[in-house]
């Protein structure tokens, strides 16, 4: 059942993104920023936590999940360190995922020969 919930939640997030790109003049970069910002705002309002608990990886892996992780880290660090935690908490909470993305992206560029589109 966990897989089905993750598929449904992740699929709905993707459908929203596709509808935004097809129905508006938003570029993929605009949608990326919108989704990360929406994840932060929904976390601050207490709305994204139940979505993440229900959808699991379907809610935490897509872009709103990155905003969720940023906000959750900032909130946790702010409670522990005060105002300074608001600036450092999000970075600390997401550092592992960002480092992994950079490492694996670099490894793929070394293993495979990148080509430009014509």
From TrEMBL:
Transmembrane residue ranges: 6-24, 31-48, 54-71, 83-108
Keyword terms: Membrane, Transmembrane, Transmembrane helix
Pfam families, per database record: SpoVAC_SpoVAEB
UniProt superkingdom: Bacteria
Protein name: SpoVA protein
Native source species: Thermotalea metallivorans
